[in-house]
Specification:
- Helix content is 49%, strand content 15%.
- By secondary structure, it is an alpha+beta fold.
- It has two domains: 12-142, no CATH class; 163-308.
- The chain has a seven-stranded antiparallel β-sheet with strand order 4-1-6-7-8-9-5.
- Helix 4 crosses helix 5, helix 9 (196-207) packs antiparallel against helix 10 and helix 9 (196-207) crosses helix 11.
- The longest helix is centred in the middle third of the chain and has 26 residues, at 137-162.
Length: 309
């Protein structure tokens, strides 16, 4: 196994020349292995990225059991995680490292001799085994990730239940990077909410509904922003001022006016943002104690003061 191969940096063209992952290959790797080290962080250039040993196996039964539990789903291989892994699994024989495997996010493994990563066929059994041996962090992280996914699913259901009904028709497409569906969605939204002011307010309220307001939010939350960008900012502000200006609408307007994309062009529209709007947004972010939002409105006020001086 050449140390010139980067287990997390090989290019797709180079990877395609390598064989696919198989369970037979894993069994071969474990032949004559008498010691296993599991280390912090992943694998880079066929070396563990950390020397911090989290679990050390020397019992023949434990080493054998680990080899059995590293069974992969041979129908789910060849993908490529864009990180070096969470842990490094070093396989030693007679005092020398023979192979090293990257363990990724408690669900897949990587070996530099394969054409890509491989999903574990029974990762929960592996994690339970490691936990029994005193290495419980992977199990704990996996269960936390599961709880997070469940919470995300609930949040998604709530989001679509309160968004314009049109969004539900395009739900499957809204989760990806493809935007070719947007013109059709906008046309359907025009049919659902023909009044432009009401449509803007509905989009603002939908855009303001988020548990991850500034970063790390799911891609479907960006769709209201994409549609709002098709409106003149004067019309957005006017629609807001004509609404009841409740906290949901304030949240959406604040998020839009302080979004990364809008801030790149905001200086061109400052004259369209009246003090009453800024005061509403400032009160909103102060009320919910969102420090990022408070800072964003502070910056907006400074920009407005600058053009007025």
């Amino acid at each position: 196994m050449s140390t010139d191969n980067l287990t997390n940096e090989q290019r797709p063209k180079e990877l395609n020349k390598l064989p696919r992952a198989t369970n037979a290959a894993i069994r071969t790797m474990f032949t004559d292995i008498d010691e296993v080290f599991i280390k912090e962080d992943g694998v880079y250039n066929d070396k563990a990225m950390s020397e911090n040993v989290l679990l050390h196996l020397t019992q023949t039964a434990d080493v054998s059991r680990l080899g059995q539990l590293l069974e992969i789903d041979e129908a789910n291989t060849g993908f490529y995680c864009m990180c070096p892994g969470t842990y490094a699994i070093e396989l030693h024989s007679r005092g020398k490292m023979r192979h090293i495997i990257g363990f990724h996010h408690e669900v897949s493994i990587r070996y530099s001799g394969w054409n890509g990563d491989a999903a574990l066929s029974n990762n929960e059994a592996l994690l339970a085994f490691l936990s029994e041996l005193g290495f419980s962090r992977p199990w704990e992280d996996y269960m936390q990730a599961r709880r997070n996914r469940q919470a995300d699913q609930v949040a998604e259901e709530n989001w679509f239940s309160t968004a314009p009904k049109t969004f539900r028709k395009y739900r499957d497409k809204m989760g990806g990077l493809e935007t070719g569906y947007l013109p059709a969605l906008i046309q359907d939204l025009d049919n659902e909410i023909p009044d432009r002011q009401q449509q803007i307010v509905a989009l603002l309220r939908t855009y303001g509904q988020s548990d991850k307001f500034w970063s790390g939010y799911p891609s479907y939350e960006s769709v209201p922003e994409d549609i709002l960008k098709t409106f003149d900012i004067k019309n957005i502000i006017h629609a807001y001022l004509q609404s009841d200006r409740n906290y949901k609408t304030r949240a959406g307007l604040g998020r839009f006016l302080c979004s990364f994309d809008f801030k790149t062009i905001r200086k061109n529209f400052l004259k369209n943002i009246p003090p009453a709007v800024v005061a509403d947004l400032e009160n909103y972010f102060n009320h919910i104690k969102d420090q990022r939002g408070i800072n964003e409105i502070f910056s907006l006020k400074k920009e407005l003061e600058k053009i007025m001086s």
